[in-house]
Write a structure and sequence with these properties.
Number of strands: 2
Strand content: 5-15%
Largest sheet: 2 strands, antiparallel
Order of helices and strands: HHEEHHHHH
């Protein structure tokens, strides 16, 4: 179904127009397919839309999902990433958006790398 939705939406974000190619260049991963009603079991094409991570995160952002709360789970999130768990699984298990998990992981992983270089 993902491929059907991507084709229908022209492989670009329906909100900002970012293409899948530009998304891969900026985020290092394919553009996302969003469930409009936030029900991941409702895979009817009318419930699905192509969104970039920025627009997807903006759409799904709720007050309880604000970034500072993600920070409270830093150790668990980084441990899950070290075990190879995908961002979506981590986001689902903690109740955060995938965009928030991805953003903070990239920020933390960069800081960890910098600390290792400076030691």
């Amino acid at each position: 179904m993902r491929e059907v939705v991507l084709q229908r939406d022209g492989y670009k974000c329906v909100e900002c127009g970012m293409t899948d190619r530009a998304h891969k260049a900026e985020w290092g991963r394919p553009i996302t397919v969003d469930h409009k009603d936030k029900n991941r079991k409702n895979n009817d094409p009318s419930n699905l839309q192509t969104l970039c991570l920025r627009c997807h995160g903006r759409k799904d952002l709720l007050p309880r999902l604000c970034a500072p709360k993600v920070v409270d789970h830093k150790d668990a999130i980084l441990s899950a990433r070290r075990r190879g768990e995908p961002y979506q699984k981590i986001a689902d298990s903690l109740g955060f958006s995938i965009a928030s998990i991805w953003k903070w992981c990239k920020k933390w992983e960069c800081n960890i790398d910098l600390r290792r270089v400076n030691v």
